[in-house]
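User: I'm new to structure prediction. If I give you an amino acid sequence, what do you actually give back? Let's try with this one:
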Amino acid sequence: MNQPELGVLLNGVTGRMGYRQHLLRSVLAIREQGGVELPDGSRVRLVPVLAGRNAAKLAEMAERHGVDRWTTDLDTALSDPDVHIYFDAQLTSAREPWVRKAIAAGKHVYAEKPLAESLPHAVELAGLAREAGICHGVVHDKLFLPGLRKLRRLIDGGFFGRILSVRGEFGYWVFEGDWQSAQRPSWNYRAAGGGGIVLDMFCHWSYLLENLFGRVTAVTAKATTHIPRRWDEQGEPYAATADDAAYGIFELEPGTIAQINSSWCTRVFRDELVEFQVDGTEGSAVAGLRRCRVQHRSATPKPVWNPDVPATERFRDQWSEVPDNGEFDNGFKAQWEEFVRDVAAERPHRYDFFAAARGLQLAEAGLTSSAEGRRVELKPL
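Assistant: Good question. You get back a string of structure tokens that encode the predicted 3D arrangement of the chain. For your 381 residues, that looks like this:
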């Protein structure tokens, strides 16, 4: 396409994720570097248009970052021919109507996850986007993290042999909001607002497991609300109606078993806020946000269980660090650049709305499993 600039309408940038990761560290960072470089060496510049409901916040943000345009009139913005991409980082409950309008307006659409509040609606949006012939994508940021990219390198190089199992630990303590302010918005803990850790994190686990290890075929999960009372941004108490922890077993297509604990009610005793241990016949790895350590079959020690004497082995010292072997950019920014290249090339984005629908399918299956106390199989979408 002969388009040196792409207008990007960013809806929801006054929120924490929309501002920090998507506006500041992605779109504005891309603008500062002169745009997205294409395979032929040319660049596509991004022209941000800030959108939302709070005019004062938008005006202040636009002035602070040197953004020329902002609006509270999204309908008019979507009809603007100089706007080519619509991005949505709103609350989950508000996302679907505007994604639908953007598709109808013929805009390319990139969105945070979950794409919709239910699987049928996500599948419908995916179908509408495909029929419209637009480029459509959903955030898959964790695949672009340095630690997971190193893990991908190990998989591609055959390091593990046959992968047997994956064990993941994610989470940290989110303060209740009474004596210390909470690190996450209160809507995360209200079911009516689209909150809940299953709806949030199972969408991540879906694409992570699918792209690294294999499609999820069945899930057994237990979701719970450990802390039923929290305090909102105004210091007012409220009933937490959404799940704040989930414990899942995921069966993958090649026979691999994954176990992932997700919790906003756990104190961290590990090196990073999320870690995955992968065990295979030839070797094992532990990957986090940035680090990845390995232990090959040939260097595996021979521990012996003896509870009567203190342990003398320093087990963490028996693992080797995987080198960076390159520079890793911000994961959100890296996917933004990939999406822009796909828009410029007029080709599908590999992490599209159908991938988003599979994430919602896993989340809904996890909630069903928890509510009914049973294993739930997933049909291919």
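You can read the tokens as a compact description of the fold. Here is one thing that stands out. The mean pLDDT is 96.
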